[in-house]
Amino acid sequence: MSVSALPESVTTALSRLSKAQQDVLASAPAEMKPFLEAQFKMSQEQQLGEWITKMMKGDHEQATSVLRNIGG
What we know:
The chain is an all-alpha fold. It has one domain. The chain contains 3 helices and no strands.
């Protein structure tokens, strides 16, 4: 999978709340729900950013390895 394919496949998966998060929201007082939803969204965005960073780092390391082997 390439980084360009991430927005469709990964963000769709991360945009859904987990069962545990849904349970927390269902049992939370009404005044806390917007805060919790924002917190869950921020956490999901952070996970996505970390995942993209790891993918790009892996691509970079692979390219660097190829260049070292060619120059070698």
